[in-house]
Design goal:
This protein is 10% helix and 53% strand. Strand 4 and strand 5 form a beta hairpin.
Length: 257
């Protein structure tokens, strides 16, 4: 089993920019807006519940013949800035409490709800940010920046079962509203992966859309995908998030360390 986790890991890949790549004189102001948005993102989010549906697929190292392994449905709780998932069904069949361990996927991910965003654009980030240009995403003009985080400053850990793990470098693009700094898409690709992890590459896309929770609007993940190439072939997780609703403060949740 492979796991991506920062100490956290997505297929509609974004097209290359076809718009103006000229660096505007106020590019730093656009980037500052995105940084400000990221710095406050997790603190602005309410405690909430949603349903995460994940389809796991595998394929050979070449070609596009993917074999669906299973579809898992989980209740996702976000509270106090942390994520907790509880498996509820596999291929539409309910899973009894405590029976989820046998359904664990080869590829597991977390961090879609702000942790990755904070690690790239937050005040403590060591990411190198460069202006890329303007583009259109879902009928909206967006600003696009490239980023890169080297292994020395990375908080992204790639683990192979319990045999090996290491922090890895990564890079990608961030698509955001130039007026507000609100992030609409993040892409991520790993680089300089140690050979003992037996992983050639891993690519991630997370798309954020507006949802209403408790009568207020928030930008939260709508879809995400992870595709990883390992020695024996390829793994893919395709995720959707829906059914967002407020988690009441009088409920009690215990997070594992």
């Amino acid at each position: 089993m492979f796991a991506l986790s920062p100490v956290i890991a997505t297929v509609a890949w974004p097209s290359h920019l076809s718009q103006d790549r000229t660096v505007p004189t106020n590019a730093s102001e656009f980037i500052a807006k995105a940084r400000g948005y990221a710095a406050e993102y997790i603190d602005r989010l309410p405690n909430f519940l949603c349903v995460q549906t994940t389809t796991h697929s595998t394929a050979g190292r070449k070609g596009e013949h993917w074999r669906k392994k299973d579809t898992q449905t989980a209740q996702l709780l976000f509270a106090g800035g942390k994520e907790k998932r509880t498996l509820q069904a596999v291929n539409g069949k309910p899973v009894s409490p405590g029976r989820g361990r046998g359904s664990r996927s080869e590829l597991t991910t977390e961090g879609e709800f702000g942790l990755l965003l904070a690690n790239i654009l937050g005040p403590d980030s060591a990411a190198e940010i460069t202006w890329e240009g303007f583009d259109h995403l879902r009928d909206q003009q967006v600003a696009v920046v490239k980023y890169a985080v080297d292994r020395e400053h990375s908080t992204l850990r790639l683990s192979r079962d319990y045999l090996a793990s290491a922090f890895v470098a990564y890079y990608g693009e961030i698509f955001f509203d130039p007026k507000t700094g609100a992030v609409l898409r993040i892409t991520k690709e790993l680089s300089d992966i140690p050979p003992e992890l037996e992983t050639e590459n891993s690519r991630t896309v997370i798309d954020y859309d507006k949802v209403v929770i408790g009568g207020a609007d928030y930008l939260l993940p709508s879809t995400a995908s992870v595709e990883m190439t390992i020695r024996s072939g390829r793994l893919r997780n395709e995720m959707s998030f829906n059914g967002y609703r407020k988690f009441e403060a009088n409920s009690t949740v215990t997070f594992q360390p």
